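Review form for a predicted model. The reviewer records the input and the model, then writes brief findings.
Reviewer: anonymous (R2)
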Amino acid sequence: MKNLSGIKIKKLNPLLRRHSQDLVGIDFSSNNLKLAHVKITSNKLELVDIVSHDITDLGDDDISKIIKDTINELNVKNVSGIDIIPSHMVITKNIEIPSTNPIEIREIINLQASRYTPYSREEIIVDYIDIDTYKHSYTKILLVIVARNIVKRHFEILNKAGIRSENVVFAPEALSCFVPRVLKLETKTSPIGIIHVDEDFSDFIVVSKNKPVFIRTISIGMHHILGDIETYRSKFAEEITRTLEGYQNEDIEKSPGELILTGAMEEAKFLETILKDSLHLPTRIMPHFKDLITLSDGLKTRPFPERLSFLNILASLFSRGEVKVNLIPEEVKLSKSLEDR
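Model under review:
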């Protein structure tokens, strides 16, 4: 268990200054459960702990118990949870809607969303990201669809662990807010490409105006790359090249002017050179999150996980006031509304 501290958030979200709060971000979408505990105080956001557990082949009750035990070890009371949904659990689709009216756009999406999935409308949760107006009467959007049973399962696991789910965050959107901000990158006029590498999957995200305008999941992660470097470093470069070409063919936005490699990159820095040579684009590795924040003296020499990325979770926690996509089921929204009243 690692303890991190001292992350200043004066410019992150002024609403967070009003009170102290404990937040836990949780991602249990693969073989590892990853959890980050954040404390929000009057003038800073403090990352207190990060934890990972192998949950391969465990049942939901066992996962709930691990989460509950971890929260007890952290001694966190009345914790609010942020459920992180990574891109490989979501269907995204770039489409054009024949309207610029947000109400009409929402109605059209509700009617047509099931066309892009193997599920019925009742079996999915749908939201979208407004990319841009096109030909004065069309709106380019990024459609975001997740199976309802995935989110329902997550809520049940967290409820059994005694965690109230505050939000369900679409991780690529959080990364699109977080990465440009911490790197001080301008994406209003020139999009960037974020390549986020985790244990089993990688994301290619094109970010324009601090929001994702194109997303593709690649089924290659650190587990593959470091398991067979000779094979997978070339496959990885081929997949990134193919993805970039696919984005350009869809004519969504300008091509990225720069690529940012991030995530579990400590043992795979050679990917930077490989992508530069393959794509002929400026490419750089984002510093590890431990180098972007202030650590307590006792943590500066401690090791951090190298083949797991916690950036999905950290970005979701640090950007929670900026993300727009809401993947909470309607019945849960109604229940929360009644509780608030």
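Findings: Residues 11 and 44 are 10 Å apart (CA to CA).
Further findings: The longest strand covers residues 44-54.
Recommendation: see findings above.
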